[in-house]
Amino acid sequence: MCTQGGAGHIGSGDAAGAPTAPAAPAAPAAPESVEGSTLSRRMALVGAAAVTASAALGGTAHANAGAPSGRRRGLRDLTYPLTTTFPAFAPGEEAARRTVATIADNGYYMQEWRVIEHIGTHVDAPGHFTAGGRLSPELQLSELIVPAGVVDIAGRAARDPDTTVTVEDLRAFERRHGQIPRNAAVLMYSGWGAKVGDADAYRGTDANGTLHFPGFSPDACEWLLRRRGIRSLGVDTLSIDPGNSTTFDTHLILTGADRYGLENLADLNHIPPRGSTIVVGLIPYQDGSGGQARVFASW
């Protein structure tokens, strides 16, 4: 989700590295007041609880992931191709590109892109909403290769675009699929990808300019941080907060706990509800508040 984005230029490159045991990040400082002191205290408490849970469990995320044993059975790309027509959170934030070299004229082909950090399939780093929060280059591989669970609310979202993932949804998920592992990414599938070809429908903009699409409720985010020590929230919409939010409480709680968000994920209905591992190939923009990422799941 982007409320104020910075521009950047993308070049090509490859990076590789083996994941290491997750290291517990330092406890975040108490956030500044947002919509009164109650939310600030809530964010500080949740952040401390999440960091404590992560430190206590250390590198057990993969051991507890519940993935099937034996050979890998599936692989799925959860990334949308970045195009100049991909829906932006606000009109005017779309990507732009131009050709700067051609094989015919230069012997090689190359484009220049102008993008904000929060367009297409991307990461919201803790510093996107939390002052002093970690930025893109500071996120570690152990945080970007994690077990995943998919909570399906597509049926309800088809009837109510303002619906959110609730604590009861999470409890129902666990009754059916087992407990969400520590340091996991919890991903919302709402079926919103069916609208991605129509920017207005994807944003759900009404006559008053209000956006309408599903997200995570603040209570669900807080429950996952306190009770399950999650690493990330992800959605198949423009924002981890529902479109009609004006206070972005879920962003504030999640990033205040030194965790990151994933937005505009594709094809979440094609990976298992539990037992997959996702790899988040985040571009480490200098001082990035987030950035584009190639995200895929294996199981």
Return the CATH topology. Glucose Oxidase, domain 1
What count of structural domains? 1
Look at the helices and sheets and give the structural class: alpha/beta
What is the helical fraction, as a range of percent? 10-25%
Say how many strands there are: 13
Spatial extent as radius of gyration? 19 Å
What is the mean predicted local confidence, pLDDT?
A: 85
Q: What oligomeric assembly is this protein in?
A: single chain
Give the low-pLDDT segments: 4-38, 51-68
Shape: globular
The main sheet comes to: 7 strands, mixed, barrel
Indicate the CATH class: Alpha Beta
Second CATH tier, the architecture: 3-Layer(bba) Sandwich
Tell me the β content. Answer: 15-25%
Distance between the termini: 28 Å
How many distinct helices? 8
Q: Any idea what the CATH superfamily is called?
A: Putative cyclase
Strand order of the largest sheet: 5-11-10-8-6-12-13
Along the chain, the helix and strand elements come as EHEEHEEHEHEHEHEHEHEEE
Note down, in words, how this protein is organized.
This protein is an alpha/beta fold and 299 residues long. It has a single domain, classed as Glucose Oxidase, domain 1. The protein has helices spanning 37-57, 103-106, 141-144, 154-159, 167-177, 199-203, 218-228, 249-256; strands spanning 7-8, 75-77, 96-101, 110-116, 122-124, 145-152, 164-165, 185-189, 215-216, 232-235, 260-263, 274-282, 290-298. α1 crosses α8 (249-256) and α7 packs parallel to α8. The protein is globular and about 60 Å long. The two termini are 28 Å apart. Mean pLDDT is 85; it is low at 4-38 and 51-68.
